[in-house]
Amino acid sequence: MIQVREPMLPDAPGGEPAGGGLHGLGDATIALTEAERTSAHEEFEASARAMKSRSLDDEELLLAAELSGYRLPDRVVETLRRFRRHGNDAGVLLIRNMPTDSSIPATPSDGYLADWDELPVATFAQLAVASVVGDVIAYADEKAGRIIQDVVPVEGAAERQENSGTVYLELHTEDGFHPYKPDFITLMCLRPDHERRAETVLGSVGRVLPLLSERTRALLRRPLYRLRVSSSFGDGSTGLTTDPVPVLSGAADAPELLADFHAMEPLGNEARSALEELRTAFLASLSGAVLDVGDLLVVDNRSAIHGRSPFTARFDGTDRWLRRCFAVADIRRSRAARAPGSRVCAPLISIGLSATPAGVTPTLRIEDPA
């Protein structure tokens, strides 16, 4: 049976690492000038207007968004493409002063914007960046399969370790249990929290690796950990866990990272100690920022984990509002899991927790709730 634990809070208040505040994202930040912002606004507005009648899960619309992205300033496009191929030390890019709509509707109380056309400029701005850094992807189990998802506090869900909560959100790889998990996460801020205290926190594998003992690095490379499927992934996935997986994989000096300090179960005391050492190293080296209007964060989900400090919601239409869109480096890998022409992966209960060749029945592990 999976052990369900409370999120492991940092030792210092406010979601900060013990012994000091977060490292800033200065070296990983790029900002549009006002002239660049105005030009991008006009481009995204025109593209959105031309695609107004289409669904976001439409190849013509997504192609239009991608072409719009390549009309961003050359320095922005070059930075995004370099980040796609090589990453960076922080595992994240922050693009500031991105264009948004002149009128932002009320923060949706149920976590769903009724129609993307209510935010045409912000929608195309985010799709454009996501499409330059990768191929847009979504999941039927999560947020009703929406291509762009609204990350807002929902009344009655404040204590959940989900995007609808307001409590400290534990550091995690996004959808790490999924066979086609996102390689990149984009988060665009439309409205910050009232007190400007909700910090998006990030930990990079490149920064923690030198802090780990040789024994811990070796243990983290062994399949000694299982991941529980997130409760945000729909009722059909409740109780599913992965087969044992490693936390670190790939190149010794630049490994890929798969970690979740709320939903990951170590298989044995040695594995648990290694995971605790990893968490301690992350808390000593976290970076992050309080996102403001027009901030667009791109997280490399292969080399960085992220979380969020707690904040207070009023549930009055003025609460913090981020929008989230995922991308992968190669959309073709997931063809068997998607309907033709769609970027939305089928429910996990039908495709399984590991990528399987065509004609092979996927295996699912369903834990005994007792």
Main attributes of the structure:
8 helices, alpha+beta, 370 residues, 19% strand, eight-stranded mixed beta sheet, disordered N terminus
Number of strands: 18
Low-confidence stretches: 1-20, 356-370
Mean pLDDT: 89
Share of β-strand residues: 15-25%
Tell me the span between the first and last alpha carbons: 7 Å
Oligomer classification: single chain
Question: Nearest-angstrom radius of gyration?
Answer: 20 Å
Count of helical regions? 8
What is the element string, with H for helices and E for strands?
EHHHEHEEEEEHHEEEEEHEEEEEHE
- Describe the main β-sheet briefly: 8 strands, mixed
Question: Which outline best applies?
Answer: globular
Fraction of helical residues: 10-25%
- The structural class is alpha+beta
Give an overview of the whole structure.
This protein has 370 residues and is α+β, with helices and mostly antiparallel strands. The protein has 8 helices and 18 strands. It has helices at residues 34-50, 59-69, 74-86, 120-133, 205-208, 214-220, 269-283, 348-351, and strands at 29-31, 92-96, 135-139, 149-151, 169-172, 184-191, 199-204, 225-227, 240-241, 248-249, 256-257, 264-266, 287-290, 296-300, 304-308, 321-328, 344-345, 365-366. Strands 1, 2, 3, 4, 6, 14, 16 and 17 form an 8-stranded mixed sheet that branches. A 4-stranded antiparallel sheet has the order 5-15-7-13. Strands 8-12 form a two-stranded antiparallel sheet. Helix 1 (34-50) packs across helix 4. It is globular, with a radius of gyration of 20 Å. Mean pLDDT is 89; it is low at 1-20 and 356-370.
